[in-house]
Amino acid sequence: MYCEVKLGEIDLAYRTSKDDLNVIGDKTHSLKPSFYVAMGMIEKRNGNDDAFMYNYTQAIKIFEERLTK
Fold first, then answer.
1. Cα separation, 3 vs 25, whole angstroms
2. How far apart are the first and last CA of the chain?
């Protein structure tokens, strides 16, 4: 998804991240926070601050859970 962002394929990067999160679901995956960060960056770029904060909060939550383990 980061490659898609670099190539300017912002909509594709968003869809990729969203699809990957749907596939992962509640399971643990090493890249799961990265998908939330990417979606947050795209939402911020699009001016959607609420979605930006939601996605970043999700990523931080996962990182904090991992730190406590």
1. 23
2. 27
